[in-house]
Amino acid sequence: MADAPSSVPRSLLEADQATLRAFIVARGGKAFHAKVLRRAVLERGVLDYEHITDLPAGLRAILSEELPIFSGRLVDELTATDGTHKLLIEFPGRTDRDKPVSVETVHIPPIRPDRDPNKGATLCVSSQAGCPVACPFCASGLLGLARNLQAHEIVEQYVRGRALGPLSRSVVMGIGEPLLNYTQLSTALDTVRDEMGLGGRKLTVSTVGFPDRLRKLAPQRPRFQLAISLHTPDQAQRDRLVPAMAGVPIEDILAAGDDWFEQTGREVTYEYVLLGGENDSEGHALRLLDRLRGRRCSVNLIPYNPTPELPFYRPESGAPEYFRDTLVEGGLTATIRWSRGLEGSAACGQLRLVR
Q1: Residue among 135, 138, 297, 348 flagged as catalytic
Q2: pLDDT per position as a tens digit, 251-274
Q3: Are residues 154 and 256 in the same domain?
Q4: Domain range for residue 167?
Q5: Whole-angstrom Cα distance, residue 249 to residue 4?
Q6: What is the pLDDT of residues 107-134, one digit of tens each?
C-alpha cells in the first residue's frame, strides 16, 4: 500500500521518498517511478523532465506542469576570468508571510584540467541565509542571519553546481555556520553522498568550533572532513575576530579537535585567515606552532580576500609564505590557499546574504 503524502511538495527536491511516491501514484504513475525520477536528477544530473525518457510521456508532462525540480530561482550568475562561477539563488519564504532569501554558491573548476581531465570542480555551499557568527573580516555576516536553509535548499545548490561541470569535492564553507543548522545539513549531505555519489572524504564542513557540539557529533563518526576556523593563537584576539565564540577557550576547541580525531580517525584542518598587520606576524606563527605542535592536524592558511565595507587588507608580499614556512619548519603540515574568484567577489569570505 502506498504511503500517504505528508504534504503536497512544492518541488521535486523538497519531497521525501514517501511523499514523492504518493504524488506520482495519485497521478497515474507507478511507485517505482519515484526512484527512477530521483536517480535521473540526483545521480545522472538530468534537469529537464522531457529528457527523463524512462518515465512515461504522459507522466513527464504532468510532472513538468505540477512539480518543478527546484524550489529556488536562479537570480544571477557570474563567471570570473579564472573560470570560477558564482550563482545567486533565491529561495521562497517557508510561509506566505516570510520574505524570500538569496544565497551564493560557488563552482571552482580545477586549475589545470588539461593535466588531469578526470578531476572535477570544487563546490562551495552555503548552509544558512546569512550568518550569526559575524566575524568582522567576513562579508557573510554583514546582514546577520535571515534563516536556516532547509535540506532540499542545500541539495539544490549541489544539483545546480554539478550542472556547471563534474564535482570532485565540496566545502560547506559558504554563507552560514554549519553546526548551527546541522540537522538540515546532515540530511542534505546524506543525499549528496548516497544519491549523488560524492563520498564523505570529498566533503568538508567548516565551523568556528563549538566544542560541546563537536564532542556530541564525533561518536557518530559523521561522514565528512572537519575544518575549524581558528584565525589566531591568542585568546583575546579570537574573542574579537570570532565574536560568537567570545569566552570559549581556544584550548577547549583544540581539545575537541583532538577528540574528533580519536573518535573518527580523521585529522582536523585548522583554517587561518591571514589579515595584514593583524594576525600574520612571526610571533603569531610561533604561538600557533606552540598551540598545535604534537596534534594530528594540518593548517590551511588563507590570505584575506578584501571586501570594500571591511577595514582589513591582505598580508604584505612574502608574509604568507614566511608564516607557512615557520609552521612547516616546526613540524606542522601547512599550506597556503590562494582563493579563486576574487574579481567576482566569489572568494572565501566574500559571499553574502542578498536581500
Answers
A1: 348
A2: 999 999 999 999 999 999 999 999
A3: yes
A4: 73-344
A5: 49
A6: 999 876 666 666 899 999 999 999 999 8
pTM exceeds 0.85, yes or no: yes
Residues 45 and 109 in one domain: no
**CB count in 10 Å sphere of residue 233:** 21
Model pLDDT for residues 4-36, shown as the tens digit of each residue: 444 678 899 999 999 999 999 999 999 999 999
Instruction: Establish whether 348 is a catalytic residue.
Output: yes
**Pick from 167, 43, 193: nearest CA to 110:** 167
329 is a catalytic site residue: no
What is the tally of structural domains in the chain?
Answer: 2
Catalytic site residue from 104, 153, 156, 278: 104
The grid coordinates listed for 257 are 579537535
Q: What CATH number is associated with residue 183?
A: 3.20.20.70
